[in-house]
């Protein structure tokens, strides 16, 4: 076997090309829960698993009107290849959007990408050699870690609590990794309403973390898809608002407009921006002209701030529905209370394994994402991410009720077994690093 994969990692021996795959594909293993998610997308299943924005809240005439005007007035350009950096009118609008989070920048430093996911890939491609270290919150966004691993980066998690990344834990992790002679390229962080934990980094910690990274020559990759989707009060300003040279900031229209356009962006320090454009061209020639013209038209003509307010109201109501259902049906769990975004991070009683439990949950017609998906190191067994963005409040309530049937069933089972064998002999001890560092303040 030339590429060092085990058959279970990248396919089976029935794949005739198996020996030819590049080493970097070793990280591209289909997760075991993927098949279950196919089942979970059936209409009778309440899915609290995905992170799909509720695009039905967009008035269809808003998008339809933009389409007609774009085709009438700018059809030939919209259907043509464009520049590798993105169209200037859209980049101007992006400056206005980022200004809402305190960012001042030059239009020259914005690079439009095919969703922020593609920006993640381009930045990783620019910086990562095999074996380089990427620091990331524990837990962190699953598909960012897939990208990091596909470039053979090693992800090292940094502990977080209900106030986000813990600066002291970051210092320690940096010291440990450096002592091992490994190279840290960047810190990947989602400071506002993180995916999956739903927590927000305080302003003081943002400053301290920037300081730590500056002192250690570590770039900060600030991923901010949810910052404008706050419920009660805005999050602290973006980290990029105070640090230009050491931060690459990623934004997207996926959550404030619609992911189907596949338009996001990177705001990068001048020198990096040049390389990003070249990498963008190498990958896609130019990001979709059509989508960019559509979004520009939408921003020119629609009340986009009002639309973001509408989304906030919808997601706030759904968050509230999930929190009250959790209070009612699952008081034995602990969970984070997000002030924005799409996700709640729940911690199950000790010894429950959210991944092992998922097939039983799907049988009860409810789905969630097991916590292990959000760690590169196997942690998160007794955590789960619960998304409140897509189902209606009624479905969220019903979903949590069904989940309570599953969890209560599991606990009954454990109690039964514990009468014949000590619990610790049938379930692994809880690792201190599981979940976030300390119980969130909402916990009963
Ligand atoms: C933290 C985070 N980053 C990036 C993305 C990718 O978003 P997109 O490529 O749609 O802009 C997502 C999508 O859910 C996300 O949650």
UniProtKB/TrEMBL annotation:
GO terms for biological process: alpha-amino acid metabolic process. Residues 72-403 form the Aminotransferase class I/classII large domain. GO terms for molecular function: pyridoxal phosphate binding; transaminase activity. Gene3D superfamilies: Aspartate Aminotransferase, domain 1, Type I PLP-dependent aspartate aminotransferase-like (Major domain). Its cofactor is pyridoxal 5'-phosphate. It comes from the Bacteria. Keywords: Aminotransferase, Pyridoxal phosphate, Transferase. Homodimer. Belongs to the class-I pyridoxal-phosphate-dependent aminotransferase family. This is PLP-dependent aminotransferase family protein. It comes from Lacisediminihabitans changchengi.
């Amino acid at each position: 076997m030339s590429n060092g994969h085990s058959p279970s990692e990248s396919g089976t021996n029935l794949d005739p090309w198996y020996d030819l795959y590049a080493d970097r594909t070793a990280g591209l293993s289909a997760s075991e829960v993927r098949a279950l998610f196919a089942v979970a997308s059936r209409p009778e299943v309440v899915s609290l698993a995905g992170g799909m924005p509720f695009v039905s809240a967009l008035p269809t005439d808003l998008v339809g009107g933009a389409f007609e005007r774009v085709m009438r007035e700018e059809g030939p350009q919209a259907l043509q290849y464009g520049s590798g950096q993105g169209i200037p009118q859209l980049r101007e609008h992006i400056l206005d959007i980022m200004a809402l989070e305190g960012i001042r920048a030059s239009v020259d430093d914005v690079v439009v990408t095919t969703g922020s996911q593609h920006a993640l890939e381009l930045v990783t491609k620019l910086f990562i050699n095999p074996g380089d270290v990427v620091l990331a919150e524990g837990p962190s966004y699953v598909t960012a870690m897939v990208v990091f691993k596909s470039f053979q980066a090693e992800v090292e998690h940094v502990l977080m609590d209900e106030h986000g990344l813990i600066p002291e834990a970051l210092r320690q992790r940096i010291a440990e990794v450096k002592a091992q002679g490994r190279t840290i390229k960047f810190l990947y962080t989602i400071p506002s309403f993180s995916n999956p934990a739903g927590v927000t980094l305080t302003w003081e910690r943002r400053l301290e973390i920037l300081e730590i990274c500056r002192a250690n020559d570590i770039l900060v990759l600030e991923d901010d898809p949810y910052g404008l989707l706050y419920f009660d009060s805005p999050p602290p300003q973006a980290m990029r608002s105070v640090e230009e040279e050491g931060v690459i900031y990623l934004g997207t229209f996926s959550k404030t407009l619609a992911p189907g356009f596949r338009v996001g962006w990177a705001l990068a320090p001048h020198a990096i921006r040049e390389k990003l454009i070249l990498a963008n061209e190498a990958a896609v020639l130019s990001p979709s002209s059509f989508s960019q013209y559509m979004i520009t038209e939408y921003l020119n003509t629609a009340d986009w701030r009002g639309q973001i307010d509408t989304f906030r109201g919808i997601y706030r109501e759904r968050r509230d529905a999930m929190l009250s259902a959790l209070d009612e049906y699952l008081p034995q769990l602990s969970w984070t209370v997000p002030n924005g975004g799409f996700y709640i991070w729940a911690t199950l009683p000790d010894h429950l394994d959210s991944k092992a439990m998922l097939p039983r949950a799907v049988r009860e017609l409810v789905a969630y994402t097991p916590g292990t998906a959000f760690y590169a190191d196997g942690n998160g067994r007794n955590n789960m991410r619960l998304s409140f963005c897509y189902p209606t409040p009624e479905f969220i309530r019903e979903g949590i009720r069904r989940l309570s049937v599953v969890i209560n069933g599991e606990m009954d089972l454990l109690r039964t077994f514990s009468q014949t064998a000590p619990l610790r002999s049938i379930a692994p001890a809880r690792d201190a690093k599981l979940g976030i560092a300390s119980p969130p303040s909402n916990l009963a």
